[in-house]
Write a structure and sequence with these properties.
Length: about 200
């Protein structure tokens, strides 16, 4: 059966977009990641798609979500947004997160965040094991590692579907007319540096 994104079946998953991890990126990439993730959050919010955000412990050392993301999420009603701290790299191993996802009854997971080759990879594997359809927004992933090709290949091999923000944007819109309502709220994805993976300073 063809896997097509359906707003009524989706949940956004933002993995560990925290200051500690962002600080390992060069300034240009860091700004792009923060801005583009904020765009994604606004896009999902427009379609009333629930969002789950995770923060790796200890949060006191690794930081909260960037203000542009955290403040928007805080303004969403509780059913549409939940933030969890986690100890496991695989978010599905956290009982509270697993129970929350089950309560949402959303089978499609749109995954972004970091690190591509650690928490994102393991969380995608966990979500797939639970029977979810997993869509990985590849231009909204980042890592301290320069080469994450093996992690991306493994996610695909296990059944995660790669896509870009642009693809997601238009698949959610479905028709030309809808863009008139969305464009004023959601900016298109900004440019990323021309590198294979987010570079370290």
């Amino acid at each position: 059966m063809v896997k097509r994104i359906d707003p009524d079946r989706c949940c956004g998953v933002i993995v560990d977009v925290q200051g500690f991890f962002l600080s390992q990126l060069d300034r240009k990439t860091r700004i792009a990641v923060e801005d583009n993730t904020a765009n994604l959050v606004r896009l999902l919010g427009y379609f009333k798609i629930p969002i789950v955000a995770t923060l790796e412990r200890p949060v006191s050392a690794k930081g909260e979500l960037p203000d542009a993301i955290g403040e928007y999420l805080a303004g969403l009603p509780r059913p549409l947004c939940a933030t969890f701290e986690k100890d496991f790299f695989d978010l599905t191993k956290e009982p509270k997160i697993k129970a929350h996802l089950a309560k949402l009854k959303r089978r499609q997971m749109i995954v972004t965040g970091c690190e591509t080759d650690v928490c994102v990879l393991q969380s995608c594997l966990g979500l797939l094991e639970l029977g979810h359809e997993v869509f990985v927004v590849e231009d909204l992933l980042f890592s301290s590692a320069r080469d994450v090709a093996a992690a991306r290949a493994r996610m695909r091999a296990e059944g995660a579907v790669p896509l870009t923000y642009k693809t997601l944007y238009f698949e959610l819109l479905q028709a030309v007319g809808e863009s008139r309502h969305v464009d004023g709220l959601v900016k298109r994805l900004g440019p990323f540096p021309d590198v294979p993976e987010a570079a370290i300073e």
